[in-house]
Model the fold of this input.
Amino acid sequence: MTLTSLTFFGFVAASLIVYYIVPKKWRYLVLLAASLAFYGIVCFKYFPFIIFTALSTWAGALWLDKVAKDRKALLKEHKAEWDSEQKKKFKHSTIIRRRWILALVLVLNFGILAVLKYYNFLAEWFGNIINMQLPMVGLLLPLGISFYTFQSMGYIIDVYWEKTPAEKNIARFGLFATFFPQIIQGPIAIYSELAGQLYEGHDLSYENIKYGAQLIFWGLFKKMVIADRLAVVFNTLFPVRNSLSNAYSLLLLVVYMVQLYMDFSGGIDIARGVGCMFGINMAENFRRPFFSKSISEFWRRWHISLGKWLKTYLFYPMAVSKAFLRLGTWISKRGKKPSEEIPDDSIWGGFTFAQHLGRVLPGCIGTLITFFIVGMWHGANWRYAGYGLWNGIIILISMILEPVFKWLLRKLRIRVDTAGWRVFQMIRTAILVVLSVVFDIADNLADGISMIGKCFTPVLGPTTHLGTEVSTGIEAADWIVVITGLLIVFAVSLYQEKTGKHIRESLSRQPLWIQWTLGIGCVVVVAILGMYGPGVASGEFVYMQF
Done:
């Protein structure tokens, strides 16, 4: 029962009918039953893993909450008796206790993820080093484990930080951990942003059903009309990648990047559309990433929910930690003090190099660690670490050399407020993004580096280096469909980028007959031009493997 199957949409329709028939206060139980049923149908063998994560996180959060409440009660009870030293000692003991509780839940759940996702890879890698064959784990990766683990662990960290109260109702928290539209590939939700919507019984709304259907068919268009055609091209070229000319090597990378974007964003649109039909507004995961003018901006627009999770629970705590700040201060003080005041338009922006480095280094180290985690989150192979570090190192270099770049722009008198400069920045960023996906498709890290090098050698014609002609696997008519589809996506994205509005807002102001004509037209286009049937894996999404 995949997100593009008739079975899935039949399941959604049945769930919607029951949801809106049942009284409001019980509607969250319908969503919970639907979510558990969905996971049981598609991944029954690994059902205990998601149940364990939900139960352990729920119990751990209640434990944390109880310790915090007991602390407040005892401090209030002994307010007059205890001196400041006794209060400080008691507070410290509860902090330590709560840290241990948090660590227990994090180690248990991230430990399960680590064993299932990374043990075989690390065992093989370490076994090769010590020349010994280590035992392997004979389990596949449970569906959505990275997504539901990160989402649940974000919740318990929020409870530990006392940003959100612990949910006492196991059924309500179970729904947050297992909500079926997002379980396959996200978006990863923050508890305070999603939970209230899940627990509230929503009224049946024509607008929600209409907007949800529009999102679903927009996602199906991107996935089945564009991404699945490009998947055929990729699957045709990839097996012979080592013998491709440079032109076709570049085509392979571009095709994969576009396929990945259409596939992933299309799946997210379908998931968000289903949620919208239940009255639930799930977070955006993409915000027109190829309009980005830098790699750091790209990651604020691409896989937004993962980036937000890592910034909130990993990057910020690291970057502002005492150890990182002390390191920055230490480096700042190492530099030679200038004999006179440094002008603001100097090469380091009014600072010495050491002062500048001390200011940015905590963020640089945090960025590099975060992007290493981003890479390894995508899969158990060093090539994924290369993918993360490629992005992290580019951002690190830009952070360290930002004053130099600004100084050069001033010296060269380059106007940065022109459309031409913005287009240049977008093209430059797109090239770096496309090159980064070599680590996603290469056999290993060394192969990925080799593929990047190959892209910078002189471009040859549309043949292999052996001189034989290459087939892309699809006909000219399919290329016309792909290019036309991408032009439509670009036009919609450009409209949203310029106006800041969703296209459906403009459509809702049109006469009803225009809305229905466009809606039926989209259904017909997907039905006629969508790739499905024998030999087409239209239900498979790239990010399902993560």
